Amino acid sequence: MPFTPPSVDDVLAGLISRFGSLDTSVNRGQTRVVVPEPLAFEALAWLKDQGFDLLVDVTCVDYLEYKSAKHRYGLVYLLASTATNQRLTIRVFVDDPDPTVKSVVPLWEAANWLEREVWDLFGIRFTGHPDLRRLVMPEEFTAHPLRKDYPLQGRGERHNFPVITRDHS
Amino acid sequence: MSIATAEFGTSGPEAGARSEDYLWTLNFGPQHPATHTTLRIVLKLDGERVVDAMPEMGYLHSGFEKLGEYLTFNQYVTVTDRMNYISPMANNVAWHHAVEALLGIELTPRCTYIRTIIAELARISDHLLSNGAVGLDTGAFTFFLYAFYQREVIYDIFETLCGARFTNSYTRVGGVSHDFTPLVIEKIRSFLKTFPKTLDDMERLLTRNRIFVDRTKGVGVLTKEEAINRGATGPVARGSGVTRDLRKDEPYLAYGDLDFQICCASAGDCYARYLIRMQEMRESLKIVAQALENLPAGPVNVGIDQRTALPTKQQVYSTIEGTISHFELSMSNRGFEVPHEETYAATEAPNGELGFYIVGDGNDTAYRARCRPPSVLHFAMFPHLIRGHTLSDVVAVLGSLNIIAAELDR
Lengths: 169, 410
Description:
heterodimer; A: alpha/beta; Beta Polymerase, domain 2; five-stranded mixed beta sheet; two-stranded parallel sheet; 3 helices; elongated; B: mainly alpha; Cytochrome-c3 Hydrogenase, chain B; globular
């Protein structure tokens, strides 16, 4: 018997009455809400006040080769409530040439490294982030490797790296 | 004669511009035995006190998420083995749990019980190593050997089950690679009999050991609010009084049928996390015992008609349905029916919430396979936990967070 998650209809109604009509969908019991980028921070702050106190994950999907996709990048904010075990997924779509979202580090400290990872691997800039450095790739790296136009195989980015000789080390 | 003059009393970062001169930078890792894995922390020390810490990761980054976009759902399970290699079985279960959530596959009752048993055995083996390493780093070497001997027994069970001791790659879409044999069940039963005695021995060795308690109690304190705000899950969160456990809160597999407790503490220090892990091993034993005694009969994989799990060799060679199914599943354009959808599904891995956000695009490879690793969020809170403690506490805190660099960097 598959588990059915608690309903989030009341929160969803409040969200829509506050931020205008939002695109919502449900798949296998998971509710997703698409929030326009300018409203994203306020919507997430409001949801945090409504009891979604745990930021489970911040990640991103590059829709470059995805069939019938309208935007290039789709950010995913997975929220959960530790009190009621409700879950809600917030989607924020951004586009080239300068994909930028407001950072949610002021709301959740957990977002700090998660947003750094998204910046590192997708090149999405988070305004207001206290320390937006690369997380997993080296500082000298210039590309954002989880973008779909970055190949799986190749010679890598070694030509961009400084060569350290024994004298300089 | 008093030595507490103003000069000595006001040391520390706030004492003035000159106190910065006393700060000393220590590079901890990436190849230090006490980090256990490849991670680096740049510590700023004032004498022996840690003023600040800058954790750095990425030394083991191997692009697992990028690989996930090129390997099929069944192939990628070999990569999940290498994420948290302390408990590969738990990662296998988490990955295929997410894949089955995307594809909408309902498992057979026997398969859910088998996966529950192996996930709990993986939890025991993970907690054994994690607590053993805390003991080892704080000077209790014998304790580590006790823990490691029992891990060896669990390895033997896994070897009997699927042939691999360490990188098991046990699960498949819609099932598992090998069914339980009577020998496996017998080995798990004998482990259930012998393990509580070792657990008692381990608790007698360390739980009230004065040196260990002094080194872990009150060290690395994480309050409940901070734990939630910083995204802690698993034993780290439960040690701080967060009662979240996905096995109870979102019962997946067979956890809804079984009777067990969630272990919580309110202190939030390294000692509380140690106690949680010790207690969780006992609860896991209860789960394994119940699941093993109530193991349903019947097929372990979903049927051939659903065309998701590879049929057994017996079916392939003796039935036409098996042959067709095997042939079609092996072809890249005849594999699974994958919806154009996105799902997130998480399991309670030994370290915390291990979830996968999978985007399907009709192909039998994921369009995006995001892994939500608990270690990243736990490592991010490390500077917060260590500030103000001494250098020797670094290993105690690091051990109690159980950071696995392979899962951290992916």
